[in-house]
Write a structure and sequence with these properties.
The chain has 566 residues and is α/β, with parallel strands linked by helices. The chain is built from 22 helices and 12 strands. The strands form 4 sheets. The protein has a 4-stranded parallel sheet, with helices on both faces. Strand 2 and strand 3 form a beta hairpin. Helix 7 crosses helix 9, helix 12 crosses helix 13 and helix 15 packs across helix 16. The longest helix has 25 residues. The protein starts with a helix and ends in a 9-residue tail after the last helix. It binds arginine. Arginine binds next to loops.
């Protein structure tokens, strides 16, 4: 039974108020000591022509015999409810164990499609830490929406088109070495790209050459297309290695190039909507009434740009998926770009543009020299991941912990630690990477949460042979058990909040709190100790079992994989 719903039912019966009004009014008191649920009687004063404290007193008397309520206090104009703990624990744990990995799931998304675009690195450029931030947030959001019943499409809008490819082709033809590129593709391509810029400083004719090549590419010339494809394939091999490490996958890799033949239509549509104006030879959408610079659609040489490709992509997505939400997980520096294109789409009369959302995130500061890299100044993501795994391994070895497969455990913890860090705070906050915080097994970190899970599993392993499937949960009543079970009960709410705000950190904060409550629970409620009677033992084991399932599900939603022992 849902205790909150039940009390709302009762209040509705007794007061005759609209259900929605009661739902809105009930609140969770800030301090557990004040009760599990509070209802302010002030809105009733007018209708009932009585002072709120008197109404509260009357309702208290009518409600106190309800078996789900252990105690109800009338304080001032408020009713404070204390649930029947034994019933609450019993109901919740039984339901959670029955649902298993489905606990917390919902049907709110059924029949609705959410697109989550994330990661979107640029071909022949390093996958940098900002792309990792996007990957962590986007992957988590995709999992969260799926959990809530939505159809989710994960999209990787690769940066694989634009004038820079003309430069790269020119650079490759001058200095490219296929052997070196195959060994270390992105690093080598980056090297010749940098060299191109250096040389072009001295000899500006290189820029013209690059423009020629890009023009050829746009016109579908075979040789340049071949080269472009080669750069893309080489880059993807490297990106996919990182995605494999992270356990991330995409339903579509349609990048900017995919839209290159879909832009004429967009330009026509914008022209028909009569929102294109000419400015210094370029075709733009004037947004000065919104205090924004114009959205450039066609450059003076007729070339389309990033914004045009994004508008074509949005239109394509609308037609292909008929989405309820189209989410872009892209850094905050691109806020203006998204405001410009969304506004342009609105002016084009595309009603669905209101369902496009830029989900931005802050900057990542790396701790100076402590981030090693085999590539000089550029921090390569794969190096960061590997460093985290190595550091984890040495922590485990120094602790003398006994783990079966240290490679697997270090990898899961090392990667989990990084993902957790990106999802720890509201995404718009900047992040300072610190190995000490990230890998602090006692602090708010992935290893801390993963350890909580492994600890629970080790208790359950020791209990092998004990059948707690029909445990009498009323035997487990205690303050710490109650706090823990209340959290188990609110898992679904945390996930729904995360989706509502596109903020995975709600789930992160939730699971960290759950593990804290779990640690307290098993410290004050001994489980496998000899002096614990069988019935109590079984009841507590059932709570441990339910907790482990929820920790695992919540960490999964953050992209973090648990380990059974560590
Ligand atoms: N490739 C871009 C970059 O690295 C990000 C793409 C963001 N997505 C989009 N639809 N514009 O900055």
């Amino acid at each position: 039974m849902d205790f909150k719903e039940h009390i709302i039912d009762k209040l509705q019966e007794l007061t005759g108020l609209e259900r929605e009004a009661i739902e809105k009014a009930v609140e969770t008191p800030p301090d557990e000591k004040l009760g599990d649920l509070a209802f302010p009687c002030f809105p009733l004063a007018k209708v009932m022509r009585k002072a709120p404290p008197i109404i509260a007193q009357e309702l208290k008397e009518q409600l106190s015999s309800d078996e789900t309520i252990a105690q109800v206090d009338a304080v001032g104009g408020y009713l404070n409810f204390f649930f029947n703990k034994a019933m609450f624990i019993s109901d919740t744990v039984t339901a959670a164990r029955k649902a298993g990995e489905d606990w917390g799931k919902s049907e709110m998304g059924n029949g609705k499609t959410v697109l989550v675009e994330y990661s979107s690195p640029n071909i022949a450029k390093p996958f940098h830490i900002g792309h990792l931030f996007s990957t962590a947030v986007g992957n988590s959001l995709a999992r969260i929406y799926k959990f809530l019943g939505y159809d989710v499409e994960s999209l990787n809008h690769l940066g694989d088109w634009g004038t820079q490819f003309g430069k790269l082709i020119s650079a490759y033809k001058r200095w490219g070495d296929a052997k070196l590129i195959e060994k270390d593709p992105i690093n080598e391509l980056l090297k010749i790209y940098v060299k191109f810029h250096e040389e072009a400083e001295k000899d500006p004719s290189l820029e013209d050459e690059a423009r020629e090549y890009f023009k050829k590419l746009e016109d579908g010339d075979a040789e340049t297309t071949e080269l472009w494809k080669y750069f893309k394939d080489q880059s993807l091999v490297e990106f996919k290695r990182v995605y494999d490490m992270l356990g991330v996958s995409f339903d579509s890799y349609n990048g900017e190039a995919f839209y290159s033949d879909k832009m004429d239509e967009v330009v026509d549509m914008l022209r028909t909507a009569d929102i294109l104006t000419e400015s210094e030879g370029a075709q733009v959408v004037d947004l000065s009434d919104m205090n924004m610079p114009p959205c450039i659609i066609l450059k003076s040489d007729g070339a389309t740009i990033y914004a045009t490709r994004d508008i074509a992509a949005a239109l394509y997505r609308h037609r292909t998926y008929n989405f309820d939400k189209n989410i872009y997980v892209v850094g905050l520096p691109q806020s203006l770009h998204f405001r410009q294109i969304f506004e342009t789409m609105k002016r084009a009369g595309w009603e669905w543009s209101k369902d496009c959302h830029h989900v931005g995130f802050g900057l990542v500061k790396l701790p100076g020299k402590s981030m090693s890299t085999r590539h000089g100044d550029v921090v390569f993501l794969e190096d960061v991941l590997n460093e985290s795994i190595e550091k984890t391994r040495s922590i485990i070895e120094n602790n003398g912990a006994n783990v079966d497969d240290i490679d697997d455990v270090s990898k899961k913890i090392g990667i989990g630690a990084i993902l957790y860090t990106f999802l720890k705070n509201s995404r718009e906050k900047d992040i300072v990477f610190s190995w000490d915080t990230m890998l602090d097994f006692d602090g708010e970190s992935a290893p801390y949460c993963m350890y909580g899970y492994a600890r629970g599993k080790s208790i359950l392993r020791r209990a092998e042979g004990i059948d707690y499937s029909t445990a009498d949960l009323t035997k487990a009543v205690s303050d710490d058990a109650y706090t823990l079970v209340k959290l188990i009960n609110s898992f679904g709410d945390a996930v729904a909040d995360a989706a509502d705000k596109n903020e995975p950190f709600y789930v992160n904060r939730y699971v960290t709190g759950l593990v804290k409550a779990f640690n307290k629970f098993y410290n004050t409620n001994p489980i496998m100790r000899d002096d614990v009677d069988e019935e109590t033992k079984k009841a507590r084991l059932a709570i441990v079992d339910a907790t482990c399932t929820v920790i695992k599900s919540a960490l999964y939603l953050l992209g973090i994989e648990v380990v059974e022992s560590m």
